[in-house]
Write a structure and sequence with these properties.
The complex is a heterodimer. By secondary structure, chain A is mainly alpha-helical. Chain A is built from 16 helices and six strands. In chain A, a hairpin with a 4-residue loop joins β3 (about 270-275) and β4 (about 280-290). In chain A, about 45% of the residues are buried. Helix content of chain B is about 70%, strand content about 0%. Chain B is built from two helices and no strands. In chain B, α1 packs across α2. Classes of the chains: A mainly alpha, B mainly alpha. The interface between A and B is medium-sized, with 34 and 32 residues.
């Protein structure tokens, strides 16, 4: 069997980065949520806010830890899978990743200890300051990474000299044409993720008639944030759509599922397609009549540009781009509907008692994570066949590493990450099952992963005696 | 043929109104009616959400 090294390098990076993005998305959102909740506790001294803070602090810590570890792996993969990319684009990407470490990691490292372990060791105001600094650190981290990735989408401020990219204007590199739109889009996605996660857990308790006060506050805060954020996200998403249409038309052509240079009029809005890239057509296409013209051209009979406007050699594979976009957009529409329903029910006093709504919140709890993954599939597969759009093709960026090496490391990553994910899910689900009353004042030092995965062991009198509690 | 109870009719009307308002806001915010309507729609949506969240009691009826 002939293995394609370039494809394996892409699959490996896609797998590791897909796994990674789940955790920073969660931790960025939860960091801001924790800041708001602790601020509310400081202002009102209502103990429920402190209970919510303590409950989500442990989950934040786990997400943060896994996010950092899996993020470091990505830097090494530049060498393992994409050495030519590192060689050519190193002078641009390297300093931005270094700046991420210098600004955000140092900030987070300095204050994370106080945030996790200092609730009873420092004053409440200093502790709140530490929480704010960690949230700021996550925001800065996202800013640098989004800047680097946005530069790969819409490169600016560089020149090619002797086969390497040299920076001619750092401001243009950092504030590249898509960064200003992609950063708020990603941050809002992270905050929405946390909002639906928090509301979903609250709804779960309400359905089981447990921890009622905690649950009501969680649903109330979660849906309040979600209602405001989703409106902003839809707006930002539309502005970003226009920006990418200008800078990466091939991506948006693929995202809409049309092949012909001009679609039929009126254009439908496709939800299901079976694209045939070789023959440049759809085998199956199901959509809503007129909606494509209305949403994409803002007229009843407008035509939409198809992928044939881009030369074949420069076309992304339509299927991944289309379904990445539909996944993200479809969930955004559902989020919008749930947010509107929440406002209606809140007005009528049924926010905490309407069971179909609470069930929908439980189902929607991981929706932010799934939507974020869809958005990143759109961004990354839509940029193909380029790794740096218009400057460096992905096939020219891979390392001179045998395909067998990439396959074996990919298998290793799958096993290690499956273990990570299982441990994370067991930890989180057990915390949810135990409920907010069992949440400790600060993060627990377990001594071993086995203990960490068995919280009831920690609660036993013997374990408490050993740990001096 | 029996007439629907008034509270059910009011409920249905309320749900339909909410759906129509929600769709109108969505179409406005994604720019179907132009950028300025999108900005206005976004501002109005946030204001409306803020007013409802501010007026409705957070914990609701605890009974």
């Amino acid at each position: 069997m002939n293995l394609d090294a370039a494809m394996l390098a892409r699959v490996q990076f896609a797998f590791t980065v897909s796994f990674h993005i789940i955790f920073p998305t969660t931790s960025i959102g939860l960091a801001m949520f924790l800041t708001v909740v602790e601020g509310l506790w400081l202002k009102t001294r209502n103990p429920v806010y402190l209970q919510i803070y303590r409950f989500w602090l442990g989950i934040f810590a786990m997400a943060f830890g896994v996010g950092v570890v899996t993020g470091i792996v990505l830097s090494f993969e530049f060498g393992l899978g994409f050495a030519h990319f590192a060689q050519i684009a190193g002078p641009v990407i390297g300093p931005m990743i270094a700046l991420e470490v210098l600004t955000s990691f140092f900030l987070e490292a300095g204050f994370l200890g106080i945030m996790l372990f200092g609730l009873r060791r420092v004053g409440p105001r200093l502790h709140f300051f530490a929480t704010c600094m960690v949230a700021l650190g996550t925001l800065l981290s996202a800013s640098w990474i989004l800047s680097a990735n946005s530069w790969m989408q819409t490169p600016d401020g560089v020149a090619m000299q002797n086969g390497r990219l040299v920076v001619t204007d750092w401001l243009k590199v950092i504030v590249n044409p898509s960064w200003l739109y992609r950063l708020p889009h990603m941050l809002t996605a992270a905050y929405l993720t946390a909002s639906f996660l928090v509301a979903g857990v609250g709804a779960f308790y309400l359905l089981r008639r447990k921890h009622t006060l905690f649950a009501r506050k969680s649903v109330s805060i979660g849906m309040a944030f979600a209602a405001i954020l989703i409106a902003g996200q839809v707006f930002i998403g539309d502005i970003l759509y226009g920006t990418m249409l200008k800078h990466q038309p091939s991506k948006m052509q693929a995202a809409e599922g049309f092949w012909e240079e001009q679609s039929q009029s009126p254009a439908p809005y496709y939800w299901v397609i079976v694209p045939d890239q070789a023959h440049q057509r759809n085998r199956v296409a199901l959509g809503i009549p007129y909606l494509g013209s209305i949403w994409l051209t803002h007229s009843l009979h407008g035509r939409v540009e198809g992928l044939k406007n881009t030369p074949r050699a420069r076309q992304p594979a339509m299927g991944m781009v289309f379904y990445g976009f539909r996944l993200m957009y479809g969930i955004a529409i559902l989020m919008f509907a749930v947010a509107v329903a929440s406002l209606w029910l809140r007005w009528n006093g049924g926010l905490f008692t309407t069971r179909w709504f609470l069930r929908s919140l439980v189902i929607m709890a991981p929706s932010g994570i799934v939507a974020t993954l869809g958005g990143w599939y759109l961004a990354e597969t839509g940029r193909q066949p380029w790794v740096i759009f218009g400057l460096l093709r992905t096939v020219d960026a891979v390392s001179p590493v045998p395909a067998g090496t990439l396959l074996s490391t990919l298998i290793a990553f799958i096993f290690v990450y499956a273990f990570f994910m299982t441990a994370f899910l067991i930890f989180v689900l057990r915390m949810i099952r135990r409920g907010p009353e069992a949440a400790p004042d600060h993060a627990e030092v377990s001594g071993s992963l086995k203990n960490a995965l068995r919280p009831q062991v920690l609660d036993s009198p013997t374990a408490n005696a050993v740990l001096g509690r | 043929m029996s007439q629907p109870k008034p509270n059910v009719a009011r409920k249905v009307a309320g749900v339909l109104t909410t759906v129509v308002i929600g769709i109108a806001f969505f179409f406005a915010i994604i720019g179907v009616f132009g950028l300025w309507v999108a900005i206005g729609g976004l501002a109005l949506a946030i204001l409306t959400a803020g007013v409802i969240i501010g007026r409705a009691p957070e914990e609701g009826d605890l009974s």
